[in-house]
Structures are given as C-alpha cells and as structure tokens.
Amino acid sequence: MSHIVFLLVPGLHLLDLAGPAQVFSTAADFGHSYQLSYVAEQPTVPTTQGLPLTARLDPPDLGPGDLIVVPGWRSRTLAASPPVGAACLQLLRDHHAQGGTVAGVCAGAELLGRAGLLDGRRCTTHHDVQDELAHRYPKASVVRDVLYTTDDRVVTSAGVASGIDLALHLIATRHGPGAAARVARDMVVYARRNGGEPQTSAMLRARSHFDDTVHRVQDLLDTRFDQPMPLRALAAAEGVSERTLTRLFTRATGGLTPLRYQQALRLERAEYLIGHGTTVDAAARAVGFEDPRMLRRLRARGVR
C-alpha cells in the first residue's frame, strides 16, 4: 500500500487538490494500492472556493514508496502565502531524505522551497509567480512555460489543472503508460497536453496534436505497449493503409513512427524499473523486448 498524503494549507484551491486526488483514487479503483490521507495543522481547513475541508493532524507512517503532495493556494505573491509551521516543513524534508517523493502543485512549490528542497533542482509553478519563485530561491532552476518538472523526487507543476498532468505522469512512471491512459480515459481527460521539452513522459509529450486517428492508435499502444503491435494490425484497427497511418502518425507526433513511439514507452518504463533495482534483462522482458540487447541499444542511443 502506497500512501498519498495531501498537505493542506489554508486558502488552498480545490482543483489543485481534487485533480491529483481523483487521479490516484481512480488508480486505486483499478487495483493499484493507494491510500489517500489529508493532513493539516488544524482539523478544519478553509479553501479559496469557500468549502471547508476536514483533515487529520498527524501523518501516517511514510516510506520511500509514498508521496506527499502540497496543493496550491490563492495568494497575490508567494511572500504573502499562509504561514506554515516548522513541523510541516520538517515532514517534507524528512520524507525526501528517506527516499520519498514530494510534489507541489501551483503555489505548492513555495512550501518545497521553504523546506530547502528546490535548491539545485529544476522546478516550476504558476506563470504569475514564476519570476518571484526564482527570486526567492535563487539556487533553484525555475523552468518556465511547462506543465510540470521532476528532479530527484521533487515534482512541481504549473497552475491548477496541471496537477492532473503531474499525477498522470507519476502513475505512468510507477505503473506504465497503459495504467495512466486507463485512468485518463476513465476521468474523461485526454492525455494530449504538452508541457514542453523538460516534460519527461513520452505518453504526454507526443499528445499535443489534434489527429483523432493518431490518438486512437496511441491509446492502443499506451495500453499494450509491452505486447507485439505490428503496423498492419494498427492500420487495420483504424481502417487505413499502413502507409497512410505512418504518414499521419509521423506528422502528428513530430517525426515518430508507431514503432518508435512504442519503443519510447517501453524504454521509459524500463528506466523506471531499472532505477528501482530491476536488472536490465528483467526490465527488458517486463516491457516486452524479447532480446535484452535491444533495450541496451536503445539506452545507449538515448531514444526518447
């Protein structure tokens, strides 16, 4: 069971909280073992939208596989953000130091900055306060005009709805792109938003187009990336020729063929598995490569 702890600050935006919470809750509905908790310094937390929230005062025991998310709040400046006690900041520091992941949605990056977790790392926030974030934390590398960034288990996203993109990316890296695609479809969220080059998810990076035929083919590949998916089968599923599908796909995705897109999905998932202790040979088999040498070649070439 992985804990997803939302650290609630007075005046938070409901969608900053509800978007990621819905993603992980839906993932749990599909069999991924997540338990969501809501923690604050007071039992009742006011929100910007006027709906008070109930929270627990003590966080659950957390391990390296768990996640703390800080939803953003309304504030004209980051400097005028609500005060947060030392215990909350220490919770963020300790969890990260023990191998856990921390995330900030929108202004939530400010709390990560106060905890010292942005120093030397890439981060982002809402476009209205990007310059201020860079000024307040000069040791951080603020990336502008992207949906989210990840750097050494510190994850940040831009404003409001981008928290959904952030959560889908975490689902994709933990459980594979098929799981993220299934969650997105259930939420009636089309994974088509592009956060710019620093965004690392192959599934989302190649979705910033408007070709429905290609999106449907990508849905198939996202769900079955670890299975053989010959071009003829993909083309037949859409009722087009192989040549037409290749032309449409490469034009929509900026040069990727269906095979290269599938390889990027496999490589991304394999890198996650390897980073968590799986051998290269085992990772290759898990993502669908019959010969581990193919995975080694793709890693050496840096295919994305």
Automatic annotation (TrEMBL):
<dbReference type="Pfam" id="PF12833">
    <property type="entry name" value="HTH_18"/>
</dbReference>
<dbReference type="GO" id="GO:0043565">
    <property type="term" value="F:sequence-specific DNA binding"/>
</dbReference>
<dbReference type="GO" id="GO:0003700">
    <property type="term" value="F:DNA-binding transcription factor activity"/>
</dbReference>
<protein>
    <submittedName>
        <fullName>Helix-turn-helix domain-containing protein</fullName>
    </submittedName>
</protein>
<dbReference type="InterPro" id="IPR018060">
    <property type="entry name" value="HTH_AraC"/>
</dbReference>
<dbReference type="InterPro" id="IPR002818">
    <property type="entry name" value="DJ-1/PfpI"/>
</dbReference>
<dbReference type="InterPro" id="IPR029062">
    <property type="entry name" value="Class_I_gatase-like"/>
</dbReference>
<feature type="domain" description="HTH araC/xylS-type">
    <location>
        <begin position="215"/>
        <end position="304"/>
    </location>
</feature>
<dbReference type="Pfam" id="PF01965">
    <property type="entry name" value="DJ-1_PfpI"/>
</dbReference>
<dbReference type="InterPro" id="IPR052158">
    <property type="entry name" value="INH-QAR"/>
</dbReference>
<keyword id="KW-0804">Transcription</keyword>
<dbReference type="InterPro" id="IPR009057">
    <property type="entry name" value="Homeodomain-like_sf"/>
</dbReference>
<keyword id="KW-0805">Transcription regulation</keyword>
